[in-house]
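Two folds, back to back.
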Amino acid sequence: MAAGRQVTPPSAARSFSLRGSLVALVGLCVLPVAAAALLLVYLDYQQGWERLRQDTVLGARHRAAVLDRELASVISGMKALATAPELTADDLAAWQQRASAAASTQNVDNYVLTDREGRQRVNTLRPFGTPLPTTGTPPQLANVFDHGWTVVTDLFIGPVTRQPVMAIGVPVVQGGTVRYSLNTGITPRRVQALLDAEQLPEGWVAAVLDSQGTILARTREPERYVGQRAVPEVLAHIASGREDSIETTTVDGVPVVSSFSRSTVSDWSVAVGAPRSVLERQLVWWVTTAAAGVFAVAIAGSWLALVIARRVTGAVQGLNIAARGLVEGGPFTLPSLQLQEAESVGQALLQASETLQRTRHAAQHDPLTGLSNRALFAELLSRQMAGSTRRGSRFALLMLDLDDLKRINDDKGHAAGDAALRATARRILHTLRAADAAARLGGDEFAVLLEGADEIQAKATALRLMEALAEPDGEYPEPLGASVGIALWPEAGRDATALMNAADAALYAAKRGGKGRLILAPDLSP
């Protein structure tokens, strides 16, 4: 945690009197006009980029929804076929006749029935009784038997057709166990038809990618790129699982703004890219127009009055910014006001801000260790809970208590105890990440917030903290021991009080069990 907010003093610059500046009205107005024009160009470009990004996001989500509806329809038909009476009676020949008839009404190429060993028992592409492949079933379909899941595979080469294909597998349950996997093949051309049905603006491109980033369908030159891997930036994005936008280059070398949407039915993703040349052409037009306007203003000969107005306006705006920063309590940099009358006010604001920040820091931090105090930690915990709720992420709360502070105070005096507390704070801060937060709640009790941590990460950090405390340093060259209680959000409590109580309970349980222990709070969430 920072020791305190810093206020940057204004840079040294020549000062001007307001009256002297008005008397020296000898400039032109081109600079403010040019700045305003450039700002408008920048804002228009930013708005254009955001509109383009939003359009690609909507396009990706819409096409992902179309794909999901098609996959869900196929899966629904397969689940009905998996409960056919012919399968219950193990009459595979009769079931193949039913499956062949169903394939003609679904957007699928064939139905395949495989056993747990991956051997094909029925394939509607071959007459019943014809020898069928005993290998070639994609490994992803093993989840049908292992977990009873409905599985949508990545692209693979079909063992019968020897052509690229994707498969959907649903479990066939008999007697409470999965006896068969009912699979259907979907060729890239069927996915391609879904993409082609939705028209894109000129120059845009859309693609469907499997979980490994292999192109399953593409609106531009699909025959050339289906089966290839996407560019590295897209592969990294797919692996991260995020649904947002990036600037990248397509496999055919076109710079684009791409947005991604993950399928809710499969591990596939839909990418929609808009060429960046659309924005670049607009930017060139705006820059040319702005330059012409600025040149016309320069010819008009009115730039002097606007330069002086800019000085006055800049001074007022700078003071307004400084005043808002003072009200909000945040650090700010006072710009060069260039007016003697305004600089004295700015200096007063700087001094007031420094005083306010020192007071606020003293009110929110422990004077002995410099860590956050209980009040600030409660605020940090509240912010962490709100942020984790928005992001759908997790975090951990650690409560630490020194095992031997009373002995240190009794044997060596309170000065040694204070040194031990300061050493504890230093060792904690050296162990934590920048995103984590630490506080001294009082006495020898400390608290730590671990952003994004699960049980394994929280325990690992707690062990590192205990190891760090055992390492001596310059001011206090003796090892320190601590007990740790861990509470995970939201499992251990969905509000701050419940989470703190859970961590406290775990800490006291650790101390009752002996020194140098850590305990994870039980699941107390409703």
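---
second:
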Amino acid sequence: MGILGLSNVDNKGIGRRNILVRPPEPPEEFLMNDPTNAIYIGRTKIFHVPFNWTFQRVTNPHIAVVGITGSGKSYFVKTFLTRASFIWGTNAFIIDWAGEYKDWVKQAGGKVISLAKGAYINLLDLGGMKPNDRVKQIMRTLGILTDIERYPEQRRLTEQAIEKAYVGAKFKMDSKTQIDGLGRALKPPTLRDVQRVLETQLEQGSYEFPAELENAIYRIKQFTREGEDFFARQSTINLEELTKVGLVDLDLSGLPDEVFRGLAGLSMLQFIKEKMREEGWSPTKGLKLIVVLDEAWKIAKDDNSDAVMIVREGRKYQFGLLVASQNPTDISEAIFSNVGTTFILRVKFERYLDYLQSTLNFSDYMRREVSRLGVGQCAVNMAFQTTAAFSETFLIDKIEGEEPMQELFLDFAEATGAEGDADSNVASFERDELKKKLRSYGLSDEQTDIVVEIFMKKNRHIKAGPFVVLLERYGIGRTNITEFLKDLGLEDAVIINVLSAADSLKGQLGDQDITEYVLGG
């Protein structure tokens, strides 16, 4: 039995013992907000306090979400949008880079708009703006997505041609009026009209630098060629309705590359921003609209992007921007510095942790906890409206969604000969995020469903070697498989051993069906 005794301890000694320091969680009154006017996320890790998020507690309603592949980002986004709709009647507009959300939106009764599959956006649509303002937006967008800023003369020619196209369509450059003298609606020009202006100028032969003019025409033609004219036709989308029809998914997966996707994403942000400005604040409860940008690094990383501008404008237009990425360095530091809330799911790589810690200024303790988060667990960083005498970064034990989160496990212990804690030899990921990743590698919906079904039949666990062989027999290359394993946080040495185990297994299998092998093992 121990013996109690008294001892003299100076102030510094008491401070080192932290006996009077509050654990890193805000007080209950900052977490337990009115459930009829806030979104339930889950319970805190230390005191198990129910956390109901509301934008009324933070500096603005904008949100950043980061976490590696399979950590539960998509699950969180779907839960958040569903509950915002229930609580506030909030509309949602998803700028869907990889087509990840379209199936869910259809199931939820929302509207899916698939560009390159019958839907078009006229880049020169005004969306209630003055032509002068729209021209500036278009040129800024081209500056972000192309190298036009390196060629000032081509930039000037392009800008002038866009202005002439508007004037030729009877628009007044400094007016929002979009009707002619007889009260008829004016039809906006298109990029084909801009191309014709430049071509006419070249044919006239009066311009002293024809090579610059030819290059400016070539730039425009990239967006007007038959089959790639997704932004050079009159819009099939009613821009006036997009912010008021509930749940909308703008599917960009059919567009040919990042430039086209970026052009669509930035244009929609610009139109929505102007629409919100026009409507202004209303005395209704909650948020009118949440705009989701998921893995849109092309437009979330540039400090001149409208995503950054929207975040900096704060809460005055009663809509929120939600930016999500597996790589936090793909999100501009200006966004992290200005969003009201950041949800940090599992992050493994030291450079990502360095970036987050330096940007959000959380403790070394919190950094260690973030690196150990499981699927669906997260840290939350909030910029409270009032000065906080407590930690603004805290841990959530589990995101509690509308349906149970389905976690799948990849066991690489046998392939590597690793020993020790079983948890250290297993990588885990959320089911729907696995399906998203496999679809991005070219697997069909049917094939991704089969892979998930195999996991479920094996009690949600598959050994890493057979999993690699399974993916290869579906046509996924080693480069993509290696990328996937890295995204799960596996070290290079472990990945090499896993791939070696897969090669050995292929030699043993011959023509045997890998599915039968996995299910029978």
